[in-house]
Design brief:
507 residues, alpha/beta, elongated
């Protein structure tokens, strides 16, 4: 744990630093600073678990530093060091979240006792944060992806029962719908390019008019989950509408509407069965599971659950598990040779469709992959699997770089707003503040606040060069509510006060 001691009097600062064995008290790193400006920059860049600060210091007081740290959303514990009466400052300290004081002259036993209490509080806070971070942070960062995973799970062959499905809804942060649920499986005559697929999905959402809970890309088809039943007459018109609007021939399989999340897997499988019966029909392109004749053909069962597991491993992971692919290919080779080739072809189509749905548009031309042996099939499909994973990761890297550029543009545009923070920027980008902070530093090489400071100081320099506006007014114009902090920060980064900078540039 890191602790900062902020005290402008060198004798007191060194006395606190040497008063106890900090490592034995649980603080492995102790940094002594003589002013609040240095403390704020260190807190912003590197953080600290505990700050022990004097109240009365030049330029920026201890209270001002704590107030600015709260504005900057710096998460740390503060202890106020003062030689004055505690109660005189208690109310303001409580308003700023400070609950501990050290009164000068400090006694070693008092300092050890306080450090022990703060250490336990910090460790407890860490335990709570870690427990929440393991679930909530990922949910916030990838909420749409997590929702997709939830509905994928509920529509799989091994879908959970009602009670477990509702427990999982709370874990996945999904509002469980009430009433009947129904699934539609929608297939097209040919695989759609990425842009056309997005248009098709948007048109489908418009037709379903708010009744749609989720659309899942299952590779060879789309699975729509509805929170309300559709009339037969309305649904019969969908293929024609979609064909006229987008020039796409499609077929729809409809599962039986059922109450309860635990029944969703069954209606999804029914929709897929109905879709298979509808494909190829020219007059009636909508097929209801309830209308199917009880005819079960001689077709060898396709390992759909294993295919779904392999595709999900590729879709939702940067480093997909090869075991999922190998298990699927092995299951295909358990079938007879007559069906094996068609199954491999169907899986290859699903892989290319997944690549297109991820925005990968420069895949090698589609060619049917012949494979005489299991080892040959594992090798060929493993290479295709890995190629899609690599290209998807490359696109994600570009997407992350684009997020950082958008964050930079927002800071350049809104730097004059004193309330601008990492959280506010992250909200507008629909990601978590923690994720943005890590991403920005890894790509830009500086923290968000370092970059924002550089933008603000650059704007301040231009104003100082080209106008007679007062320094305190310039501070407000570039996003600082505290002129003293602005002046101290300006001097730290330029080596001059704003006044000196203006005089030198006028000369």
């Amino acid at each position: 744990m890191r602790v900062l001691i902020v005290e402008d009097e060198a004798l007191i600062r060194e006395g606190i630093l040497n008063m106890v064995n900090w490592a034995e008290e649980g603080f492995s790193e102790v940094v002594a600073l003589e002013n609040a400006v240095d403390a704020l920059e260190m807190l912003d860049h590197d953080g600290a678990d505990l700050v022990i600060t004097d109240l009365f210091m030049p330029s920026i007081s201890g209270f001002e530093m704590i107030e600015m740290a709260r504005t900057m959303e710096i998460d740390t514990q503060f202890v106020i060091l003062t030689g004055h009466g505690v109660f005189e400052y208690a109310q303001k300290a409580v308003e700023l979240g400070v609950k501990r004081f050290l009164t000068k002259p400090i006694q070693p036993d008092d300092l050890r006792k306080l450090l022990g209490e703060m250490r336990e509080q910090i460790l407890e806070n860490r335990r709570m944060e870690q427990a929440m971070t393991r679930t909530q942070e990922k949910l916030k960062e990838y909420h749409s992806v997590v929702c997709q995973q939830y509905w994928q799970l509920l529509t799989s062959e091994n879908a959970p029962a009602e009670a477990e499905a509702r427990q999982l809804a709370a874990l996945y942060d999904v509002e469980p719908p009430e009433g009947e649920l129904q699934c539609l499986a929608i297939g097209t005559a040919d695989p759609l390019p990425f842009v056309k697929r997005a248009e098709f999905q948007q048109a489908l959402e418009d037709l379903l008019d708010g009744r749609l809970l989720c659309v899942l890309d299952k590779g060879g088809y789309l699975l729509a989950i509805l929170g309300a039943d559709l009339s037969t007459g309305e649904l019969r018109t969908f293929p024609e509408i979609l064909h006229n609007a987008l020039g796409v021939a499609c077929w729809i399989g409809v599962g039986e509407a059922r109450c309860g999340l635990g029944m969703l897997g069954q209606t999804a499988q029914e929709a897929v069965s109905a879709l298979k019966s509808a494909v190829g029909l020219m007059e009636h392109r909508v097929s209801y599971y309830l209308d199917l004749k009880s005819v079960r053909g001689e077709e060898a069962p396709y390992p759909a659950a294993l295919e779904e597991r392999a595709l999900e491993a590729l879709r939702y992971s940067d480093d997909p598990d090869p075991d999922a692919l190998e298990e699927f290919i092995s299951a295909v080779y358990d079938r007879d040779a007559a069906h094996r080739r068609l199954m491999l072809l169907r899986f290859q189509v699903a892989l290319y469709s997944l690549a297109e749905s991820c925005g990968i548009q420069d895949m090698p031309p589609f060619q049917s992959m012949e494979a005489e042996s299991l080892a040959d099939a594992q090798k060929r499909f493993g290479e295709l699997f890995g190629e899609i994973a690599r290209r998807k990761a490359g696109m994600q890297q570009k997407a992350m770089a684009l997020l950082v550029e958008k964050a930079k543009e927002m800071m350049k545009k809104e730097y004059s707003n004193p309330e601008l923070s990492v959280s506010q920027i992250a909200r507008q980008l629909y990601i978590s503040p923690q994720y943005l902070s890590r991403l920005f530093r890894s790509i830009a090489g500086v923290t968000c606040m370092e970059y924002l400071t550089s933008v603000r100081l650059k704007a301040a320099k231009e104003l100082l060069r080209g106008s007679s506006i007062k320094s305190y007014e310039i501070a407000e114009m570039v996003g600082y509510n505290h002129p003293n902090y602005f002046s101290a920060l300006f001097k730290k980064h330029t080596g001059m006060t704003p006044k000196q900078f203006r005089m030198e540039n006028e000369a």
